[in-house]
Amino acid sequence: MKTHPELIPADTSLELSPSEMKALLDEVGERVIAHVASLPAQPAADVDGAADVARSLAEPEPPETGQPLGELLELLFDRAIPKSFNAAAPATWLTSPAVASSLPRSPT
């Protein structure tokens, strides 16, 4: 195999170790599992104040530094995701015009 000493070596300082990746995935997995488990108790929609939340999330420029994963997950799961539509909520599919129009009608 031919090597190229003139090439700049890759900067791997941002690479995660397998144990660091597992820790991040475990933290994300816990939040996702809790969210999915809570779906039956969530409303079909909560968009009151959603525009304000969306505006508060906009950043004029990309961040210069990273942020701890826990803070990002809190931002997503505690502020952003709740201000949306929940298509997995019970009976949400009944409000869909496509589904409602395909339901059998009782004879009159």
Tell me what you see in this structure.
By secondary structure, the chain is mainly α. It has four helices and no strands. The longest helix has 21 residues, at 18-38. It is elongated, with a radius of gyration of 22 Å. The chain starts with 17 loop residues before the first helix and ends in a 6-residue tail after the last helix.
List the helices and strands and how they pair.
Elements: H1 18-38, H2 50-57, H3 69-80, H4 97-102
Helix pairs in contact: 1-3
Concise account of the structure shown:
The protein has helices at residues 18-38, 50-57, 69-80, 97-102. With 108 residues, it is mostly helical.
Assess the beta-strand content as a share of residues: under 5%
Helix content: 40-55%
Assembly context of the chains:
single chain
N-to-C order of helices and strands: HHHH
Number of DSSP helical runs: 4
Mean pLDDT: 83
User: Pairing-aware structural class of the strands and helices?
Assistant: mainly alpha
Largest sheet: none
- List the uncertain runs: none
The radius of gyration over CA amounts to 22 Å
Note the overall shape: elongated
Q: Count the strands? A: 0
Features:
108 residues; mainly alpha; 4 helices; 44% helix; elongated
